[in-house]
Amino acid sequence: MAFLLNRMRRMRKDEFSRRLMREHRLSSDDLIYPMFVIEGENQRQVVPSMPGIERVSIDLLVEEAKELVELGVPMLALFPVVEGDKKSLLAEEAYNPNGLAQRAVKAVREACPDLGIMTDVALDPFTTHGQDGIIDETGYVVNDVTVDVLVKQALSHAEAGAQVVAPSDMMDGRIGAIREALEAEGYIHTRIMAYSAKYASAYYGPFRDAVGSSGNLGKGNKFNYQMDFANTDEAIREVMLDLEEGADMVMVKPGMPYLDVVRRVKHELGVPTFAYQVSGEYAMQMAAFDNGWLDKDSVMMESLLAFKRAGADGILTYFAKDAARLLLSK
Ligand code: PBG
């Protein structure tokens, strides 16, 4: 070989040419930070299976929200952790106008009017059995009855000031029902982020510890409403339905093991597509970081960039604050 026409390493040689040919970038604009809120004042609780993540009372949540604004993170995703006496079979607490989530939304909106707040629309924090909906005598989650409650819950979030409601329950027809109710009540600007392709995943374990639903759920599972992780055509169909029913943004969840689905959704439908790097993905990486087996900053950024490469417009991640801080320091 006298000479090589194509030396791929030429462009990789220096930082300036690596920068010029870089196809994807991660910015703080891409991040959504999930947060757990509890009752009380000046309260923090660690979540053992999610090192670095705490459940905090509303006053501390507000302080953290201000930090997110400073870091340039556009939105937080709010998850209330309610006490046992607030849980019931009909999940009435879910739409209490003065409930924990509703009060937290109001407080954050007041302190940080420009920060996006996305609320979780699902009944699992409020049911005694930890399922996302209302069950019949056999334990089956009843679709249409549940949708009626989800509509009330979503309206109460919009009324409290949430700019984005995010149904994570996987009932059929809930996006359309929520959209119709929002329109009817005059909340025409409320955005819907649909957990469209939400798989029945074991990666949600640490989250269920964090919101305290794992004990209630016990050996129960969510197979008859969350998707079978063997499927991708079904994900496309779910996304199409949610869009037809009025979703503004769609989500794939979990994230890292499902980047093929993220790619299909973004490339086939070309709509605002988000992915959730869920609690189990966070926990397994943190375990390796804390053991010194992987380098936190590099692996965290590599994992988040991979979402962008797959086509995600944004990522829900428990690393949002750490990543935004790192991006600012560069
Ligand atoms: C509840 C909900 C779950 C997550 C977000 N909303 C858990 C579940 O469906 O059991 C999981 C988030 C995570 O694991 O980080 N509907």
UniProtKB/TrEMBL annotation:
Q: Is this entry keyworded Magnesium?
A: yes
Protein name as it appears in the record: Delta-aminolevulinic acid dehydratase
| Pathway it works in | Porphyrin-containing compound metabolism; protoporphyrin-IX biosynthesis; coproporphyrinogen-III from 5-aminolevulinate: step 1/4
Provenance organism: Marinomonas mediterranea (strain ATCC 700492 / JCM 21426 / NBRC 103028 / MMB-1)
Catalytic residues?
Answer: K198 (schiff-base intermediate with substrate), K253 (schiff-base intermediate with substrate)
Q: What is its EC number?
A: 4.2.1.24
Q: Which SUPFAM superfamilies match?
A: Aldolase
Query: Would the keyword Lyase be found if you checked this record's keyword annotation?
Result: yes
